[in-house]
Design a protein that fits this description.
Elements lengths: L24 H5 L12 E3 L5 E6 L3 E6 L5 E7 L13 E4 L5 E10 L5 E9 L4 E4 L7 E5 L5 E6 L2 E6 L4 E4 L9 E3 L4 H6 L6 E3 L5 E8 L5 E6 L15 E6 L9 E8 L4 E4 L7 E8 L5 E8 L4 E8 L5 E8 L7 H5 L1 E2 L5 E7 L4 E7 L4 E4 L7 E8 L4 E6 L8 E6 L5 E3 L6 E6 L5 E8 L2 E9 L4 E6 L2 H8 L6 E7 L5 E7 L10 E6 L17 H7 L3 E6 L7 H6 L7 H16 L3 E11 L1 H12 L6 E5 L10 H8 L6 H6 L12 E7 L8 H12 L5 E5 L11 H16 L1
Parallel strand pairs: 38-39, 38-40, 40-41, 41-42, 42-43
Antiparallel strand pairs: 1-2, 2-3, 3-4, 5-6, 6-7, 7-8, 9-10, 10-11, 11-12, 13-15, 14-15, 15-18, 16-17, 18-19, 20-21, 21-22, 22-23, 24-25, 25-26, 26-27, 28-29, 29-30, 30-31, 32-33, 33-34, 34-35, 36-37, 37-39
Helix pairs in contact: 7-8
């Protein structure tokens, strides 16, 4: 039986006559009309009762959590004599609150890694010095005692001793596209989601780092043209070429090792880890001197080992192993926490079918499971050892919502710290005395509020009331949540935005929007005013459905797509299209589907599998053959193509070109270092040979995000025009 639950999601103002404007593409892409205001990025100080913010790019100010009043200005470019910089982009304050590490002239390398010019500022003396001369630096970080800074330059690790104004070069073998020390390679950075591969020991006597040998990793390259926004004048007549090491599914990865540099002795030891094809995506020091935690995943990512290395002997031993029938999510790497008393580690994973918090001794013996239930922990914030409480985010109430909770170390107390219905996330101060809660739902723009650790409200930092007033001046179609049950008896979540001036007697065209990737979610009770509102003003019904494989509904729902990415998700989207087409106010002959990246992969797949259900599909930067994508992501869900050729080949659009129906518009950035333009080029060749007509557009010099200058405006105008013409 099909059923629909409807919630009016966007607040309808009392003064409806004031709503005279409709959402334009310019509002969404040029003017930032509906952009929510945040708060100045705050950073908790070591005392846990003060925080700092960067203001105007020139000042770092200190505030009290309790009152919100400014206590001091710690850094002000205007008050620094002969200051070599005019603007800073971010900063770090050392543990003794005596020095600040600032950087400027940021130059992005990949999505998360960047180079910049770093400077060390002495707060008392008001003196600023460059961290290092010459080339830009990466991954700079204070030692725990605040007296040194580690950093990477030209793929080598360095240590700067502030007191003596001396620089020590720890490694000397760094080389582009060959050896990387202290920062991750492309695939680690992208798929293990971090940008720094160094770690200081708690007592500041040792620096651990990961070495990546990507000598045997194959290169990928693409042309770079002059272009604009930015302009590369050096390529005005002859295009340049960008090349980097990119391991595709089944191909050779970088060889990784963990090394530890002893500061006083100036000696380096390589930790003894048995040889094999594995990943070492994190290193984390325990509280015991000379004991380094090394987080290890096998190549298939279905076995996790926690190794503890003795840095004196270099021997690394496994104290804990977790195996999974499918795969282990990357979140386990971020959430694993060693307690400060040296007794325990905290591990968050799916051991009973749902993502929960587990407590272990340092010897790897399980103490207890701290959270239980048919719901997922979706984020872990940390362990407050004074209060014996652990803080986390979960989807207890609904998979489409989030709340913040605390659970005691004995598991006997578990209570909610937030109250409103919607999406909550927390940013705790050092020591967990306070947290900033970010809340929104579909009728409430993001609200930032300060609370005590018990959840008691202190004050509002930003309520985005002005944005709510702005929205009230527009004709906005409310977002309505629904569920429907597929022919296989699976209930799926969705939302729809109906056309303005909706009339149940009319038949409207439908555009389905989705992402559909593993553990992702698009159907969430959170604030958003996007392209769907423009399309609603143009007479479209826009709908979104989260298929099987998406998040916050337990392991069975999330991992049923294992070894066959795209098969189940596209089937669910096709069933969703049938359901939407059955509604008495939709035109079943005019249903379209669009998506970006994984969502683009879905669009291509659906047009080849749905036997004409979709009239139009738009695929932006799609994967068209899983053999083209990177090793870490693809093999996590599909294993190697050598082991699972059927799973790869039967579910890649490039092998379904003969069955394409409807009109497909494929769009790609030609400098996409993530989902390579190769996916589109090879796919359209198959469409051509199958005599399938399609439309295509390529953006020069644009990466996976397709932005810069007028690019986003052009993209959405083009897609809107395409829908008007074809749907």
């Amino acid at each position: 039986m099909k059923k629909i639950f409807v919630f009016l999601a966007l607040l309808i103002p009392l003064n409806t006559f004031a709503q005279t404007k409709t959402v334009s593409l310019e509002d969404l892409n040029k003017f930032g009309t509906f952009a929510a205001r945040g708060i100045n990025k705050s950073k908790s100080m070591a005392d846990g009762i003060h925080y700092t913010t960067l203001e105007k790019g020139t000042q770092i100010n200190k505030y009290a959590y309790s009152s919100g009043k400014k206590v001091a200005t710690l850094f002000d470019i205007a008050n620094i004599k002969d200051c070599p910089i005019q603007h800073i982009q971010d900063y770090e304050i050392n543990s003794t609150n005596t020095k600040i590490l600032v950087y400027t002239n940021q130059e992005m390398v990949y999505r998360r890694t960047f180079k910049a010019n770093f400077f060390v500022y002495d707060i008392k003396r008001k003196e600023i010095k460059p961290l290092s001369e010459g080339d830009k630096q990466q991954a700079a970080e204070f030692s725990p005692d605040g007296e040194m800074v580690s950093f990477v330059k030209n793929n080598d690790v360095y240590i700067y001793k502030i007191k003596f104004d001396t620089e020590t070069r720890v490694t000397k073998d760094g080389e582009f596209n060959k050896i990387i020390n202290g920062v991750p390679d492309w695939v680690y950075e992208e798929e293990f989601e971090y940008n720094k591969a160094t770690a200081w020991s708690p007592n500041s006597t040792e620096l651990a780092y990961v070495r990546f040998d990507e000598t045997n990793v194959k290169k990928f390259s693409f042309p770079v043209y002059k272009g604009s926004n930015p302009t590369h004048n050096e390529y005005a007549l002859y295009p340049g070429e960008y090349n980097f090491k990119y391991p595709k599914a089944g191909e050779e990865n970088a060889k990784v090792s963990v090394k530890v540099f002893h500061i006083k002795n100036r000696t380096t030891k390589t930790m003894k880890i048995e040889e094999g094809d594995y990943y070492l995506p994190r290193i984390k020091w325990t509280q015991e001197p000379g004991k380094l935690g090394i987080l290890k995943l096998n190549r298939l990512q279905n076995q996790f080992d926690l190794l503890i290395a003795n840095t004196a002997t270099a021997i690394a031993q496994s104290v804990f192993t977790h195996r999974n029938d499918y795969y282990l999510d990357v979140e386990i790497l971020n959430d694993l926490t060693f307690s400060n008393d040296g007794k325990y580690f905290i591990y968050v994973s799916e051991m009973d079918g749902y993502n929960h918090i587990h407590l272990y001794t340092m010897a790897g013996m399980k103490v207890r499971q701290l959270t239980k239930g048919e719901w997922d922990v979706t984020d872990f914030y940390g362990y407050d050892e004074n209060k014996k409480l652990l803080y986390y985010q979960a989807a207890k109430v609904s998979s489409t919502q989030r709340e913040v909770y605390a659970v005691s170390i004995d598991g006997k107390k578990d209570y909610k710290l937030t109250s409103k219905t919607g999406m909550h996330s927390a940013d705790f101060s050092t020591g967990f005395k306070y947290f900033i809660n970010t809340f929104s739902n579909t009728s409430t723009p993001p609200q930032y509020t300060l609370h005590t650790q018990s959840g008691k409200y202190i004050r509002t930092l930003q309520d985005n009331a002005s944005l709510k007033e702005t929205v009230s001046q527009f004709r906005i179609s409310p977002k309505e949540f629904f569920t429907f049950t597929t022919s296989q008896g699976v209930e799926l979540n969705g939302w729809m935005v109906k056309p303005l001036d909706f009339d149940t007697n009319n038949k409207y065209p439908v555009l389905m929007t989705q992402y559909s990737g593993p553990n992702s979610q698009e159907v969430l009770d959170e604030w958003s005013v996007g392209w769907e509102q423009y399309l609603a003003s143009q007479g479209y019904l826009v709908a979104c459905i989260d298929p099987r494989g998406t998040g916050a509904r337990g392991e069975e729902f999330r991992k049923c797509t294992y070894m066959k990415l795209g098969q189940i998700e596209s089937n669910d989207q096709i069933e969703g299209a049938r359901y939407l087409g059955s509604l008495n106010y939709t035109d079943a002959s005019r249903i379209g589907i669009w998506g970006w990246s994984y969502g683009g992969f879905m669009s291509c797949s659906c047009l080849s599998k749905a036997n004409g259900i979709f009239k139009v599909g738009i695929a932006v930067a799609p994967v068209t053959n899983w053999r083209y994508y990177d090793s870490v992501y693809t093999e996590r869900f599909m294993r190697k193509p050598q082991e699972n050729p059927k799973g790869y080949d039967e579910n890649s659009p490039i092998n379904m070109a003969d069955n394409l129906t409807g009109r497909l518009f494929i769009i790609h950035g030609m400098a996409d270092d993530n989902v390579h333009f190769q996916n589109t080029v090879e796919y359209i060749e198959q469409l051509i040979q199958a005599n399938k007509q399609f439309d295509m557009f390529a953006y020069p010099n644009r990466n996976h995000g397709i932005y810069g200058g007028n690019t986003r405006m052009h993209l959405y105008q083009m897609m809107s025009d395409y829908l008007k013409k074809n749907l």
